[in-house]
UniProtKB/TrEMBL annotation, chain A:
CDD domains: ABC_PhnC_transporter (cd03256). Residues 261-290 are annotated as: Disordered. One of its GO terms (molecular function) is ATP binding. Keywords: ATP-binding, Cell membrane, Membrane, Nucleotide-binding, Translocase, Transport. Pfam families: ABC_tran. The lineage of its organism: Bacteria, Bacillati, Actinomycetota, Actinomycetes, Micromonosporales. InterPro entries: AAA+_ATPase, ABC_transporter-like_ATP-bd, ABC_transporter-like_CS, ABC_transpr_PhnC, MetN_ABC_transporter-like, P-loop_NTPase. Residues 17-260 form the ABC transporter domain. This is Phosphate-import ATP-binding protein PhnC.
UniProtKB/TrEMBL annotation, chain B:
CDD domains: TM_PBP2. SUPFAM superfamilies: MetI-like (SSF161098). This is Phosphate-import permease protein PhnE. It holds the Pfam family BPD_transp_1. It comes from Plantactinospora endophytica. InterPro entries: MetI-like (IPR000515), MetI-like_sf (IPR035906), PhnE/PtxC (IPR005769).
Amino acid sequence: MTRPTAAQPDGTAVPVVRVAHLTKRFGDHTALDDVSFDLPRGQFLAVIGLSGSGKSTLLRLLNGLHTPSDGAVEVLGVDVVHARARAIRHLRCQVGFIFQQFNLVGRLSCMENVLSGALGRLRGPRLGVSTYSKTLRQTALDHLDRVGLGHKAFQRADTLSGGEQQRVAIARSLMQQPQLLLADEPVASLDPESSGQVMDVLRRICVEEHLTVICSLHQVDMALGWAHRVIGLRAGRTVLDRPTGDLTRPQLMQVYQRDGVPVAPETPQPDEPDDHGLAALSPTPQQLIQ
Amino acid sequence: MTTPTNSAERPDLATTAQAEPTPAGAATDKRALRPPWTRNRIVGLAAAAGAVLAIVVSTRQVGVDPQRLIDGWADLGNLLGRMLPVEMPQPSRVVGPILDTLMMAVAGTALALLLSLPLSFLAAANTAPSPAVRAVARAIILGARSIPDLVYALIFVRVLGVGVLPGVLAVAIYSTGMIGKLFADAIEEVDDDVHHAVATVGATRLQAIMTGVVPQVLPSFVSTTLYRLDMNVAASAVLGFVGAGGIGFELYNTLRTLQYQRGLGLALIIIALVVIVERISAAIRASILAHEHSARERRRSRRPARDRPPATGRPRLSPPWTRARLTRQIAVLSAAGLALVSFAGLGISPGALLRAIPELVASIGTFLPPDFASVRDDLGPAIVETLTIAVCATALATALSLPIAFLAARPVAPHPVVYHAARLVIVLSRGLPPLVLALIFVSAFGLGPFAGVIALGLGSIGLTAKLMADAIEHLDPGPRAALRSVGATRVQQATTGVVPQVAPSFVATTLFTLDSTIRSSTIVGIVGAGGIGFITYQSVHTLQFHTTAAVLIVIFVTVFVVERFSDMIRKRIL
């Protein structure tokens, strides 16, 4: 499993994510404006920008929660725009999602929370660790060990700190055996130390599992420190798309300009309209019509 | 890129990791794959086993067996057939009793409010003048609610004669016990700083309470009283069973004389009555809550109130007549007016009330001393039967309420139609007083505790399923969204994402149901559905008041013990 920790993964295979001329309008407001990029397997992409620059919209377009006004989205070879509801659901099983608010089931143990990541592959309801097979339990423990929380497996999730909860949430999404991990502001409600640990874990999995990660962020330094590549959005437009290797902090800071005037990268805004990212994961009416 | 492991970065993790090494590979099988046996887990499992044991023993005692259930349902089908087509009674014959029922509920609630206001302040730890006074006030409140209202009515009718007055007094005393407790709890939850701040300016104890406590508890007092009012409508509807006025008298006679078609008509009227009052009371409570909420919002955002009047030259020395104040005044006046109209309509004058009190007090003498000897052989089995009815009914209500609650919770319900159907079941169950159901089921299943279990079980769905559904609706939707994102089905989302989160509140609800069924199970015997109610009824009717006193003591102790028990567990788990 140990792959060379290459700064740039091989871009030879078919891209995991393919976005072409993607535009999304909400009424008069254009949230995303002609965004295009390809994401090869194993790349860690950070999407940065001010609140309202289109980061969350982009992530939601990628798993079919929104339908684009224009352009094309292809994820893991599935045409998200034209796929049927069933295909979208199948796709979502392969796409892990990390929420800003972790969204663990607080009264369940960490172990059971991680196990619940396998529900998409299992039939029937489950309650209690013993209702999952021994193999699954071993895998869950492995994932917990990888995020450094194996020793807290049977502790209740709501007794953990925010950073630890987010790492359990990552272990849960690993249980999905995902090919793509979408993280919507995963560290916005965490202190700097916990943020670093969470980003460490994300980066490590990305490299070890050769997993593709798209992570929206507020903090420029986080993007520089952990991502392979950064896309900067301003008012829905791509204003930056470069590997982190030859990127400097001042260059990155330019993303945070409003009409040419530099603005300090804001502090995380928990008040941002947030329906936990996927509050309405069932297919939208438009999708059902198509 | 070197990414140091987290345990190396954090010393606390590092030491734990060393203390409990969790190596991969060969040692994998030695890792714990099951949760450890913590004390909480053992206690929880023991409690669950105890509950199951209680249910098994109780069902055996009551004689619930599948064959009987199947036969019974067939009989019930027959009975329903005989109830159709519905015969609605002549309006002229029921309008009077319906009004009486409503007015009894209003008058009884008003009296209870008057009684429990002083009592609750004496019973709350932070406003009681002394611990001794507090203990006495708490004891009065507790005593008042440990005897069901129908038992009070049964006795008062014997002492004061048939009519609405005993009904109103029965409702008033029982409600005093119920709302007095809730009031006292609300007072104890008040922010003491405000109360102390008022006291520091040199205010007397009474002044500090009036200025520092009353404004804070007012909204909760109003909503408690309204809630009680709609419970009392259901209660008043059956007081006629024992001759205490209202529509219950009509219903009892109709069903006793086997006029099932007209009986169904009357039952439908009672359901409608209870549901309408419940809706009105719920709407008023919601608007009070909304008002409180918006006031708090305004305070936080420092925005001036919308209905602030324009500033005039002369400073005002009395509060302005804003719309909110006007509404409040009108509401208070019309509530007082409604209470007065009810007393007048029932023909209960202050004089009659005052005369009734010495009569009741004097009658206490005829109850003393309690005579346990005459019922020694019956009392034990009767109270055991009462308890088993309550346990079985609670189990039945919980089992039926669990699925209904999930279907009646908006975010979990599979379809709006299902949601509304489930909510309708809840409303119907709430609208039918348990005693009415018991009377119907006695006709279907025959005399005995089995009818009582079915009646109380079905009658409790309204309470149990509603509380459970509300608990589900108040859950954080985040974990459910996360489970949806891993591809979990609806059922999986519910079992993994909802059940563990609502488990404590479901257990609390079940204990609350037990609290309520134990009270009802002491009275269903009045219509022959088993338990201690039959002995109570017999002893009152044959004027053996010494025996009645003995039975009352047993009921009191039973209800008291069950309430303490359920309170204790609820406090532990919530």
